[in-house]
């Protein structure tokens, strides 16, 4: 937990906090020694970039509005519980989500800047786009509703309630996966 909190949290807990949590079962020295052992065993390699890291970069490159960026985040999170989405790299999932968002809220052009910064062409993203769009169309009947409910809140611009999510464009994008 100490390593994970140092990696993920803005303000990581102190080692003394973990001594307290374990009711002094482990000392400061023992916790630090185990941390060194784990890091050496992992060869200090324990992180992969997340979809969100790629989305931030691509959103800036594509001049995405806050609404477009939030929609893309929603689309990416909607993919998390779906095992079949694991075949796609995080960078491709981010590109596909921004592609859909771009189609829903602007001219839909996959610009040279987006091609350059995402490193994906339009044909590259289409298979992932089709699968993602299919997930969106079935989100109301899916077992997992947490992501949809989260993005229904005002904090997330009520993006999950957007009518375009069940509209013509989304249905056309979902059919891309059927034709490939």
TrEMBL record:
<keyword id="KW-0195">Cyclin</keyword>
<dbReference type="InterPro" id="IPR036915">
    <property type="entry name" value="Cyclin-like_sf"/>
</dbReference>
<dbReference type="InterPro" id="IPR006671">
    <property type="entry name" value="Cyclin_N"/>
</dbReference>
<keyword id="KW-0131">Cell cycle</keyword>
<protein>
    <recommendedName>
        <fullName>Cyclin C-terminal domain-containing protein</fullName>
    </recommendedName>
</protein>
<dbReference type="Pfam" id="PF02984">
    <property type="entry name" value="Cyclin_C"/>
</dbReference>
<dbReference type="Pfam" id="PF00134">
    <property type="entry name" value="Cyclin_N"/>
</dbReference>
<dbReference type="InterPro" id="IPR004367">
    <property type="entry name" value="Cyclin_C-dom"/>
</dbReference>
<dbReference type="InterPro" id="IPR013763">
    <property type="entry name" value="Cyclin-like_dom"/>
</dbReference>
<dbReference type="InterPro" id="IPR039361">
    <property type="entry name" value="Cyclin"/>
</dbReference>
<feature type="domain" description="Cyclin C-terminal">
    <location>
        <begin position="49"/>
        <end position="165"/>
    </location>
</feature>
<dbReference type="GO" id="GO:0051301">
    <property type="term" value="P:cell division"/>
</dbReference>
<comment type="similarity">
    <text>Belongs to the cyclin family. Cyclin AB subfamily.</text>
</comment>
<feature type="domain" description="Cyclin-like">
    <location>
        <begin position="53"/>
        <end position="134"/>
    </location>
</feature>
<keyword id="KW-0132">Cell division</keyword>
<dbReference type="GO" id="GO:0016538">
    <property type="term" value="F:cyclin-dependent protein serine/threonine kinase regulator activity"/>
</dbReference>
